[in-house]
Design brief:
The chain is built from ten helices and ten strands. The chain has two domains: 7-122 and 307-323, ATPase, nucleotide binding domain (Nucleotidyltransferase, domain 5, 2-Layer Sandwich), CATH 3.30.420.40; 130-301, Nucleotidyltransferase, domain 5. By secondary structure, the chain is an alpha/beta fold. It is 43% helix and 19% strand.
Length: 340
């Protein structure tokens, strides 16, 4: 007997990107993202402006996602949405819209943890893309999160290590801000690092217990170092930009890889799945490629569009939860802090 296809409309609004996607089973039919440019002039995301922009973007983004997928809203099986973690104002827009639409169409509502979605993005069906088998280790590295997670099953995950302060993406962006680079500065550090000497300026690495991370001390040491050097030579940043960026990137990547090696040693698992926006960083990708050859790891990195915040990753969790009938009540509320 032929099984009926499951169509999931997914909505992601945890930070400053409004995204909607349509999945047919595990296959992505559309994945529309509206990026908010307004935050660039402030050097970081302004929560109030983000939530207002989501209100303006959400209807056209959902409309576009349905149009690109070439399906009518009456064909939808369920609505999946990001419940958290994230900015409360932003989450409220997506949550309210998803609840209203599911009520209006009389179809199930499915809440999704944003961090779980970054991990399960690996299971979106794509040509020439391998998917990890259970159990595997996931390292989620983004602007708001840094975690190492033991993934035993789609819905059985154990956080082995997390950041105690700043996330890795925040460390990149704040370091870039110290250097006077525009927001978001992380990709620019990566760009300039290609031409610099990673051993030019050694920066200290925070020593925190076991598999946890800390990047606030590194950020402070970079700030004091730059202030001191600029006092002695006002052109220091301009004259040494590439070396500074290469040294910052080397230090951050080294911290991530040290913890990852430790996690592999503790668990005996050699499958690593990377997720989150910082997974696009060339230094991290190169370090993982080298580790594959040296230690025999198997590394999985999703397509770039599934690394940054997007609704397709919410949709794949929605599909997996739909199969298990893990639906949410209309009383569900957004959660800014939502533990994996």
């Amino acid at each position: 007997m032929e099984t009926k296809p499951i169509y999931i409309l997914a909505i992601e609004s945890s930070c400053d990107d409004t995204s909607a996607a349509v999945l047919c089973d595990k296959k992505r039919l559309s994945n529309v993202v509206a990026t908010q440019k307004i935050h660039e002039e402030y050097g970081g995301v302004v929560p109030e402006l983000a939530s207002r922009a989501h209100q303006q973007n959400i209807v056209p983004v959902v409309h576009q996602a349905l149009a690109q997928a070439n399906i009518d809203k009456k064909q939808l099986s369920a609505i999946a949405f990001t419940r958290g973690p994230g900015l409360m104002g932003s989450l409220l827009v997506g949550t309210s819209f998803a609840k209203s639409l599911s009520l209006g169409l009389n179809i199930p509502l499915i809440e999704v943890n944003h961090m779980q979605a970054h991990i399960l993005a690996h299971f979106i069906e794509e040509e020439n893309c391998k998917t990890p088998s259970f159990p595997f280790l996931a390292m989620t590295i983004s602007g708001g999160h840094t975690q190492i997670v033991l993934v035993k099953d789609y819905f059985k995950m154990e956080v082995l290590g997390t950041t105690l302060d700043d996330a890795v993406g925040e460390a990149f962006d704040k370091s870039a801000k110290i250097l006077g680079l525009p927001y978001p500065g992380g990709p620019l550090i990566d760009k300039y690092a290609q031409f610099g000497n990673p051993a030019a300026f050694p920066f200290p690495k925070s020593k925190v217990g076991d598999l946890n991370f800390s990047f606030s001390g590194l950020k402070t040491s970079i700030l004091y170092f730059i202030q001191k050097q600029v006092k002695e030579n006002p052109n220091f940043i301009a004259e040494n930009r590439d070396d500074i960026c290469a040294s910052i990137q080397f230090t951050i990547v080294d911290v991530l890889m040290t913890k990852l090696k430790k996690a592999l040693k503790q668990t005996g698992i050699k499958q690593i799945a990377i997720g989150g926006g910082v997974a696009a960083n060339s230094g991290i990708r190169k370090a993982l490629e080298d580790a594959e050859k040296k230690y025999g790891w198997v590394t999985y990195i999703p397509k770039f569009e599934y690394c940054t915040d997007n609704a397709a990753m919410i949709g794949i969790v929605g599909y997996l939860k739909y199969k298990e009938e893990l639906f949410s009540e209309q009383s569900v509320t957004a959660k800014a802090r939502y533990v994996l």
